Amino acid sequence: MKIHTASCYYAATGEGATLFAYIAWASDEQEMREKLKSDVHEFWAMTSEVQEGVVRNEVTRMLWPEEMLRRIEDFAQDCAMVVARNEVHFNMS
Predict the structure, then answer these.
(1) 48 contacts 7 by C-beta, under 8 angstroms
(2) Which of 72, 21, 75 is nearest to 50 (CA)?
(3) Which end of the chain, N or C, is more open, meaning fewer C-beta atoms within 10 Å of its C-beta?
(4) Rounded to an integer, what distance in angstroms lies between the CA atom of residue 35 and that of residue 51?
């Protein structure tokens, strides 16, 4: 099992945007997508980019400060379970 990050910047209609990220243990990308389906929603399982590790990208950097991303990495080395989830939605209609 390795820590994985799923993230998505979703802005389909131009009337709003959602930033979503989820960090958890998974053996591979497929298992991470299954976790997204069961723990969050099937939509995020289909639309999120999944990468191994605690990923720093446009979405994760907007949702968490660097200190929190470092702590998640540190905890992941010693903990049996790590789950971090953050979501922000902007509706401009």
Answers:
(1) yes
(2) 21
(3) C
(4) 14
DSSP string computed for 31-93: HHHHHHHHHT-HHHHHH-EEEESS--SHHHHHHS-HHHHHHHHHHHHH-S--EEEEEEEEE--
C-alpha radius of gyration, the chain, whole number: 13
What residues contact 9, with CB distance under 8 A and at least 6 apart?
Answer: 17, 18, 19, 58, 59
Average pLDDT, the chain: 94
Task: Output the pLDDT for position 31.
Answer: 97
Query: What percent of the chain lies above the pLDDT cut of 70?
Result: 100
Q: CA angle 77-79-83, nearest 5°?
A: 100
Rounded to whole angstroms, the Cα distance separating 63 from 86 reads 6
